[in-house]
Structure formats: C-alpha cells, structure tokens
Amino acid sequence: MVDISKFLTYVYEGREKLWAAVSHLFDSSGIRIYAAALVGLNLLDWLAAYRMNAQASQDLVVLHYNIDFGVNLIGAAGQIYMIPLLGSALIIINFILVSFVFKKNRFLAHVLLGGGIFANLILLLGTASIALINFY
User: Fold this and answer.
1) What is the pLDDT of residues 42-63, one digit of tens each?
2) Residue 125 placed within a domain
3) How many domains does the chain have?
C-alpha cells in the first residue's frame, strides 16, 4: 500500500532542496549571464521556428539539405519545432548537471554552460538554414 503522506513529504523536501540548489546557483553573476544568454538564444530559435511555421504555405517543408545529395529530409512544417525543443532540453540537462557540479568544480560548470551556448548557436544556425532553404 502506498502512503500518500510519506510521498508528499518526499515531494515537498525534494522541491525545497531543488529550490535551494537553484538559488545557490543563481547567486553567481556568471551563471546569471549564462542563463540569460541561453534563454535569449533559445527564445530566438522558438520565434524563428514559429515564424517559419506560420509562413509555410504548404504542409511539407525541406528540413535538411546536403550539398552532395540535395534535399534529403522533407517533413511537416510542425517538425521545425524539434530544433528549439532540443535546445530547451539541452538547457535543462545542462543546468541539472551544473547544479551537481557547481560546488565542487566551478570551471566545469562554466565549460558546461559555454558548451550549451555553443550548442544553441549551432541549433539557431540550423533553424536559419531551414529558413534560407524554404523561404528565401
């Protein structure tokens, strides 16, 4: 039998520990700058994907183009949202990892967040290339 009160106690304590870890992370100004850059890049990616989805006149769009073989992936216009969704997932995973590493090794935290910025820049370039292929 499941004890609901015990489960709710674990949920409450876990939430308190998560809040304490996140607030400790954001005490550092470097982490706040990384977070603002990551959220800004991801927001740009979401806005670009939304604009492309709204501008798509047909159901199918080119999702990938290769110089050697030409168009090699065509899909529904809604699949454009997979790129910013991947960026959001990377941000969440990076901050979870940074919350474990930050107290022990701040350099590794900076490497993780810098890698997250680089990955989101690459994803933004991928979204821009889809826009160039389909709309310009």
Assistant:
1) 999 999 999 998 888 788 888 8
2) yes
3) 1
